[in-house]
Design goal:
single chain; 472 residues; Leucine-rich repeat, LRR (right-handed beta-alpha superhelix); Potassium Channel Kv1.1, Chain A; 3 domains; eight-stranded mixed sheet; alpha/beta; three-stranded mixed sheet; 13 helices
C-alpha cells in the first residue's frame, strides 16, 4: 500500500535533531506492507530517517516492517490515531528503539511484558489515552529510561523526566512505586485481576440485569477471581461495553425527545413572535424611531460621559435602563452630573452609545471586536457582549488565537477559551498542548516562542547542510 509522507528535520531535544518521516490523516490497514511515496530533502535517503511519526491517522495495530524500509530508525510516534490495543508482539520489531510515543489514542490496558528486552529505550509517552489498568512491572528492566509520561489518563496520570527543563512530578522510582501501590494489593498481586475491579464488575452486572429486565440476554459474570489478569480485565471490558451500549441507546432516545421538544418550543416561540409582530408593528417601529432621534438631539440630555477629554451628552433614564453597571453608579451617585470612563476608547464607546439608543449592532474591523467585548462586559450589556463574541469567533484564526485565548482567560469566558485553544492546536500541530494549558495563556505563549526558536535553529541548520552539500 502506498502511503504519502513528508520528510523534514524534527528537533526532538535541544541536542538532537531527527530526520523524520511524517504521515498525516491516512488510513493504515493491518498487516499491510507500506510503501512511502514522499520525496526526500537535502540529499537524504531512507537510511537517514531516524523517526517515523503517524499523526491523526486511522490505525488499529502498530504498523510492521518499518525497519525494513528505514533501517536506522530509533523513534516511533503514533499520535491521535485511534490505536486501542498494544501487545508485546506488536513492538517486537522495535526492541532497539530509543523513543516510543503513543499519545492521544484509545489505549486502556498496558501488559507487564510490553517493553521486555527494550534495553535502549529512554523515552515513552502514553499521554492522553484511556488507561484503566497498567501492569505494575511494566517499567522494570528499562535501565536507560529518562522520561515516561502517563499524563491525562482516567486511572493514572504521572509524568517523569530527568530533564530539569521539563516539569516532572516525581522520580522514576516514585513512579514505579505508585504503579505498584495503585495497581497491586497487599500481597503484591495486580489488583486489576481481582479486588480492584470486582466491585465495578458486580455493579455492572446488577445494572445490566436491571436494563435487560429478564429478556434472556442477562450477562453472566463470575464472582470468583479469574486465573490471570487479562481474562478479568477483558471480562470487565465486556460488561462495561454492554452497559455503555444500553446507556448510549437511552441517551439517543432522550436526545431525540429533547430535539423534538426543542423544535416544538422554537415553533411556539416563532408563532408568538409573529403574533406580537402582527399586534404591534407600528408601535415598535415608532418607539425605535423616536429614541433614535433623541440620540442626535441635545435637548433634555441630563448627564455627561467623559472619555479622553471628549464629552458625550446622554440621558440618565436610558443609561440606567440599558446598562446595569451605569445604573448602579448613577443610583449610588444621584447628584453626579458626569462620569469619566477609562480603558474604553472613544471609538468603541460611540458604537456602544449608538447601540444603547438604537439597538443597531456596530460594524468594526475584526481586531476591534475583542475591545467591544471587553467594554460590553464592563458595562454588563449582555446582548452586545454576545454579539461581540460571535464576531470574534467568526474572525478567529491561527494568527489571532493567542490574543483571543488571553481575553477568554481574563474574562473567564469558556467559549472563547476553548475555541481559541483548538485554533492554536491547529496552527501548531507539532506542539503537544496539554488540555489544562487552555487556562494558562502565558505558558502557551512561552511554548510557542520556544518552538519558533527551535524552528529558526532548524532552518539555520538546514541552510548549513545545503551549503555543505553544495561545497562537496
Amino acid at each position: 500500500m502506498e502511503v504519502f509522507c513528508e520528510y523534514s528535520y524534527d528537533p526532538c531535544e535541544a541536542s538532537r535533531v531527527f530526520y523524520t518521516c511524517y504521515i498525516n490523516e491516512q488510513n493504515i490497514p493491518e498487516n499491510t506492507e507500506l510503501k512511502f511515496t514522499g520525496e526526500h530533502k537535502y540529499g537524504n535517503t531512507n537510511n537517514d530517517v531516524a523517526e517515523v511519526n503517524f499523526s491523526s491517522c486511522n490505525i488499529t495495530k502498530v504498523p510492521q516492517g518499518l525497519t525494513k524500509v528505514f533501517p536506522n530508525l530509533i523513534s516511533l510516534s503514533i499520535c491521535g490515531s485511534n490505536l486501542k490495543d498494544l501487545k508485546k508482539n506488536d513492538l517486537a520489531e522495535y526492541k532497539n528503539f530509543e523513543i516510543l510515543g503513543f499519545a492521544n489514542n484509545c489505549i486502556e490496558f498496558l501488559p507487564g511484558d510490553l517493553f521486555e528486552g527494550f534495553e535502549l529505550l529512554n523515552e515513552i509517552s502514553f499521554v492522553g489515552n484511556k488507561l484503566q489498568a497498567i501492569t505494575p512491572n511494566i517499567l522494570d528492566g528499562l535501565n536507560n529510561l529518562k522520561q515516561v509520561d502517563f499524563s491525562n489518563n482516567p486511572k493514572y496520570t504521572k509524568f517523569y523526566s530527568e530533564d530539569p527543563k521539563n516539569l516532572g512530578n516525581g522520580t522514576l522510582q516514585s513512579v514505579k512505586a505508585e504503579l505498584r501501590e495503585q495497581f497491586c494489593n497487599n500481597s503484591g498481586k495486580p489488583v486489576n485481576v481481582g479486588q480492584r475491579f470486582e466491585d465495578e464488575v458486580q455493579a455492572l452486572k446488577i445494572t445490566v440485569q436491571n436494563l435487560t429486565q429478564g429478556n434472556g440476554t442477562i450477562l453472566k459474570v463470575k464472582a470468583e477471581p479469574p486465573e490471570n489478569a487479562c481474562s478479568k480485565f477483558k471480562l470487565m471490558q465486556n460488561a462495561n461495553q454492554k452497559y455503555e451500549d444500553e446507556i448510549r441507546a437511552l441517551k439517543r432516545t432522550v436526545l431525540n425527545l429533547t430535539v423534538e421538544n426543542q423544535a416544538l418550543k422554537i415553533s411556539q416561540a416563532e408563532l408568538q413572535h409573529e403574533i406580537q409582530a402582527l399586534n404591534a408593528p407600528v408601535i415598535q417601529k415608532g418607539v425605535h424611531s423616536d429614541i433614535k432621534k433623541i440620540l442626535q438631539d441635545d435637548n433634555f440630555k441630563d448627564f455627561q460621559i467623559v472619555i479622553d477629554d471628549q464629552k458625550f451628552n446622554v440621558h440618565k433614564f436610558l443609561l440606567t435602563a440599558r446598562s446595569p453597571t451605569l445604573a448602579d453608579i448613577l443610583l449610588n451617585n444621584p447628584h453626579a452630573e458626569s462620569l469619566s470612563l477609562v480603558e474604553i476608547s472613544v471609538n468603541i464607546f460611540e458604537k456602544i452609545l449608538k447601540f444603547l439608543y438604537t439597538d443597531e449592532y456596530p460594524q468594526l474591523e475584526d481586531g476591534k471586536y475583542l475591545h467591544l467585548f471587553s467594554a460590553a462586559d464592563r458595562l454588563k450589556i449582555e446582548e452586545l457582549k454576545d454579539f461581540a463574541v460571535e464576531k470574534v469567533l467568526e474572525g478567529l484564526n491561527g494568527d489571532n488565537a493567542v490574543e483571543v485565548l488571553g481575553f477568554g482567560n481574563k474574562y473567564a469566558h469558556r467559549q472563547l477559551r476553548l475555541k481559541a485553544f483548538e485554533e492554536i492546536k491547529k496552527k501548531w500541530p507539532r506542539i503537544e498542548f496539554f488540555d489544562d494549558w487552555a487556562f494558562e495563556t502565558e505558558r502557551v505563549v512561552q511554548v510557542i516562542e520556544l518552538y519558533k526558536q527551535k524552528e529558526e535553529a532548524l532552518k539555520k541548520m538546514e541552510e548549513k547542510f545545503k551549503d555543505m552539500k553544495a561545497n562537496t
